[in-house]
Amino acid sequence: MSKLISQELLDTxxxxxxxEESPDPMCHVKFFTPDSNWxxxxxxxxxxxxxxxxxxxxxxxxxxxxxxxTELESLRGSLGLGVExxxxxVPVPLSCIRTC
Length: 100
Prior knowledge:
By secondary structure, the protein is an alpha+beta fold. It contains three helices and seven strands, in the order αβββββαββα. The chain is about 15% helix and about 30% strand.
């Protein structure tokens, strides 16, 4: 189980590939590094391993891609701070993230 997200919340996120035909999928969870400019928005999460996610990543480039919760837990920013979940984030369509 991930330290970043509860099992209950994971259970509400669509499985991988469920949203691939959606023109504007929902972003369910936001992760960020408090000491750098990286942000991850979870659109889907594997029900098989509860670790592999697909979502929108804002970093060096803004792109859709795969990442793992284990990977996020191991990352550190320039000041050594780990990735955090934005508890105030409310799920929104991807289009809202891209236009803000």
